[in-house]
């Protein structure tokens, strides 16, 4: 599966943990009126910023994720708090995701209201997270200001010290006045391209390098639309598991019983879009029972480009966690094999377990290996090979709220080198007349079209096989590639090129 990979960097999680432990040792017993969700949100943000955690509380354990969070809150803040119910868990997810998305804009406001950049830059991490939450709730969620100020002040006093609460009180009250007067300070969109990119990066809360890159490739107007999409609440899609005899109509009936709003996919017969209520689906056990899977339609359309047919031998080169592997396997009708290769043994184990749950394990074989080594040593050739390559993930920033801050411009060059190496390796596994599909969850042409162009120069035995007829024409580029545009199609951004080997 195309993974939005984070390349090696320096993390400060150990230092942050020590600092939090010192704070916890001196904390006072909390007043019970401080909301649990506020405590969890603040600590969750600490984990994400300093520990690289992904901002998502929705996992297979459901309520278990809340229990795990409670344990971390207790270790971090030094006190136990009541467990979250499902509604609070959803609100924590919303607060954390939104605070991360809008971090640059929120920090801009906080810094201005501190009236001293030194005060902002030297602010304790937990204090800054509490302020970010308060600013997000007031500015973006339009929550009652008095309640936001009161809760965040109390949290700062409990988790830190009385003086921290006084600082939070003063800054939040200044913010409320500015908002009431409709005078929140924003940078002006003026000057040269670099200056305008900095302003847009603050207004729409993205890294400057991303804004400049998208403005270069898309133009400023389309870049703004993309950033608006990235800052919107993500929607999800469910795929009915046909191998268990579940049709889309069956899944619709289940969603109606759960009162989960939904709409049918316009592009894939097994898929349903869900904007809200995914937690209800999880709690009802639909995923745990293997009746359906959470999978974006863009991923399903990549499988459509592969076009798995019964009896074929197919390789999924970077398979884990296995969403595309499972979908391809379900389309084999019990005939043929999907060989799932991945370098992560633990994720392959999960894939095997999920394959059994989805009743497609009879047509899946997992292989723990580095693709480059495996391809060099393999003498077997396959009908179809899917390389869903590690990439920047610039097409999934709506769902991956933290990814924009973890990605560096330098990563792009490193990723392109890796993608070229993996493409060369994957090509060795394709039989004459067979198909190689290269895909990413990126919208960046340097990871997509340019990688394919460079590959074809190195491998004249391959040629482009246009995706026409395999996916709706609206997704087919002038060069015959599949491309989903987040703004245009309201899906994750993705890319796929179908290449045929002549000899």
What does this protein structure show overall?
The structure is a single chain. With 503 residues, the protein is of the alpha/beta class. The protein has 22 helices and twelve strands. It is 50% helix and 12% strand. The strands form two sheets. Strands 5, 6, 7, 8, 9, 10, 11 and 12 form an eight-stranded mixed sheet that branches. It has a four-stranded antiparallel sheet with strand order 2-3-1-4. The radius of gyration is 24 Å and the shape is globular. The two termini are 27 Å apart. Mean pLDDT is 88; it is low at 6-33, 54-67 and 72-81. This is SAM MT RSMB NOP domain-containing protein. It comes from Citrus sinensis (Sweet orange).
Give me the secondary-structure topology.
Elements: H1 13-25, H2 36-51, H3 63-77, H4 86-101, H5 103-114, H6 117-121, H7 125-139, H8 145-159, H9 162-180, H10 193-203, H11 208-218, H12 220-230, E1 236-240, H13 248-257, E2 263-264, E3 271-274, H14 278-283, E4 292-294, H15 297-306, E5 313-316, H16 323-330, E6 337-342, H17 345-357, E7 364-368, H18 371-377, E8 382-388, H19 403-406, H20 409-427, E9 430-440, H21 449-458, E10 462-464, E11 482-484, H22 486-489, E12 494-501
Parallel strand pairs: 5-6, 5-8, 6-7, 8-9
Antiparallel strand pairs: 1-3, 1-4, 2-3, 9-12, 10-12, 11-12
Helix pairs in contact: 2-3, 2-4, 2-7, 4-7, 5-7, 7-8, 7-9, 8-9, 10-11, 11-12, 15-16, 18-20
Protein name: SAM MT RSMB NOP domain-containing protein
Organism: Citrus sinensis (Sweet orange)
